[in-house]
Amino acid sequence: MWKIAWCNLWRDKVRFVTAVVGLVFAVVLMAVQASIFLGAVHSSSLLARSIDGDLWIVPFRASNADFSVPMPSRRRYQALGVPGVARTGRMITGFSVWRFPDGRQEPVIVVGTDTDHRWLPIDPRFLRMRTGYGRGVVLDERERWRFGSGEAPLSVGTRGELSGHGVVAAAFASDMASFTPTPYVFTSYKAALDFTPLDGDQTVFVMVKCAVGADPLAVRAELARRIPDVEVLTRDEFARRCWRYWVMGTGMGYSLALMCALALIVGMTVVSQTFVTGVLVKLREYGTLKALGFGNRFVAGTVVAQGIIVALIGYVLGCGGSLLVSSLAGTGGTAVTMQTPPILFAVLLPLTLAMCVTSSLAAAWRVFRLAPAEVFR
Predict the structure, then answer these.
(1) How many domains in the chain?
(2) Residue 243 lies in a domain
(3) Three-class SS state of 286
(4) Which domain holds residue 287?
(5) Mind giving me the DSSP string for 52-93?
(6) What is the pLDDT of residues 261-318, one digit of tens each?
(7) Please, are residues 93 and 68 in contact by the beta-carbon 8 Å criterion?
(8) 200 lies in the same domain as 327
(9) What is the C-alpha to C-alpha distance for residues 11 and 277, in angstroms, rounded to an integer?
(10) DSSP letter at 200?
């Protein structure tokens, strides 16, 4: 059966290549759309899950970590008095404009944190840095070309202004790019008060690190009981809220799901049409097999075997193409972030097989109704 299936495909190379190419495009499109979705989930919850802490104290019904309403800075010290809390830190997020010496201006999101602890995967020494010109700030590596001048990328030591205060690019971080087109600029909590319109006794979020052995859920319950007008969320809960706001709340997730569904339909249509045409062309050959005593199960199995062969070849080539696309992404400041975990390809394999087997079964239905006497016509 498998030998006959392969010979049928190999003898009709045009239809074979057409089916494989159509399937490859479908697999690449599904993989790319899924990778973009996972990349959006990763990027939109970056701040929420990157902290070295267990809990977030956020304003009531705060939807994301990029912007929210302020709350009193004393919430940090109220949290320190709760049993099981090892340390707390404040985070400010707010909009500002980076002005360059050549007159260019770029909107940015200022992210300021306390520097007595490494709350984010950025060396606090760079956030505390002061120069004769101004304070040090940190940007993501991907922003170097966006903020660069002409053909030269932004370099350490580049000067600028945020809200009229001098700043210097102190360092560049990895994997800390903003999900939105507005990039992050990381600095200290005190510096962020100068760069944003917040008052000195305000903050936007409070990060909580639980003591060793303390139950974060029990600490969260006590924090919620003692501190009014706030929500206390675990790191995972706040990250989930962030990506749901950006990815699902904006309709982006549904658009990506629709594109995946369309890729699946297109792939099935191309493969099914190719198989149906191939069966119609070889009806006499299939009739000969049935006249020789082979049953519907064997003959239809031959068609399904062709679908499985096409599925495996298309899957391998499609995965290779999607990895190539993913490797080319993320090279620019506005590039799309893509995540391609191994589980994605593990899910694509049965999906591709199901798509091709379903298409081949649609073609095999014509063989089921074929009478052996057709060969004598």
Answers:
(1) 2
(2) no
(3) helix
(4) 2-44+251-376
(5) SSSEEEEETT---SS----EETTHHHHHHTSTTEEEEEEEEE
(6) 887 777 777 777 776 676 666 666 666 666 666 666 777 777 788 788 888 888 899 8
(7) yes
(8) no
(9) 14
(10) T
